[in-house]
Amino acid sequence: MKGTLTVFKRELVGYFTTPVAYIFLVIFLVLAGVFTWQLGSYYDTNQADLQPFFGGHPWLYLALIPALSMRLWAEERRSGTIELLMTLPISTGGAVLGKFLAAWAFTGVALVLTATNWWTVNYLGAPDNGVIVAGYIGSFLMAGAFIAVGAAMSSVTKNQVSAFVITFIVSFLFVLAGFPPIVDAVSGSGVDWVADAVRNVSFYSHFEAITRGVVEAKDVLFFLTVIALFLFINTTVVEAKKAD
Fold first, then answer.
1. DSSP type of residue 126
2. pLDDT tens-digit readout, 7-43
3. At what angle do helices 57-69 and 203-211 cross, to 10 degrees?
4. In this predicted model, what pLDDT tens digit does every residue of 129-183 receive, in sequence order?
């Protein structure tokens, strides 16, 4: 799409010129470590794997990605720079995709920095590295879905706090849908297709399936579909606001 690369470079460089980006990285790495070594009780399990690490990712993203994505469009609308952006030789779809890819790449940098945990478990034992690679792939895909949701929600408001809250709520519902107590409660209704539908729209369920070490097409397709859907919503909203 026209202008995607231009917007991508602008946004990605922008992340690293503000202290917010570094605060995000530090908090992400600290919390990832807490989930792995403290809350995950790694040393008590006597297993060389990163399941506690990946198990905390839905909650990490739920807390941090709304803070990362809330400024994507809300700040552009509040400051009025969205009008300037739209006057450039850049398509709306290109701008939406560029912003999304920059945020996704930045989150990918945060994931790469957690490789010290991977190195540590290999030093302490003999983990199944194939399962760990699958976990990273699943985490990156899930992060993309969270960001796409956040970008779409950011485009509907000028207020960053409102964008954060809306993104958190929508993302929480996507995570909660696959949480075992929720699935069990829905299954208890006796309507199997409802339970399956709830499970199938859950970030948690699809991510958990990938972290078992099997990257199935249905799980990858789910996250890519969510990304495409919310980027479409994002583009539609920005186009509508531009026409106002």
1. -
2. 898 888 888 888 888 888 999 888 888 877 666 555 5
3. 130
4. 888 899 999 999 999 999 999 999 998 888 888 889 999 999 998 988 867 777 6
| HEC letters along 179-225 | CHHHHHHHHCCCCHHHHHHHHHCCHHHHHHHHHCCCCCHHHHHHHHH
Sequence-distant (≥ 6) Cβ neighbours of residue 86 within 8 angstroms: 92, 95, 242
Please tell me the pTM assigned to this model. Answer: 0.87
* Close Cβ partners of 237 (under 8 Å, ≥ 6 residues apart): 152, 155, 156
Q: What are phi and psi of 210, to 5 degrees?
A: -70, -40
Q: Residue 66, Cβ neighbours under 10 Å: how many?
A: 26
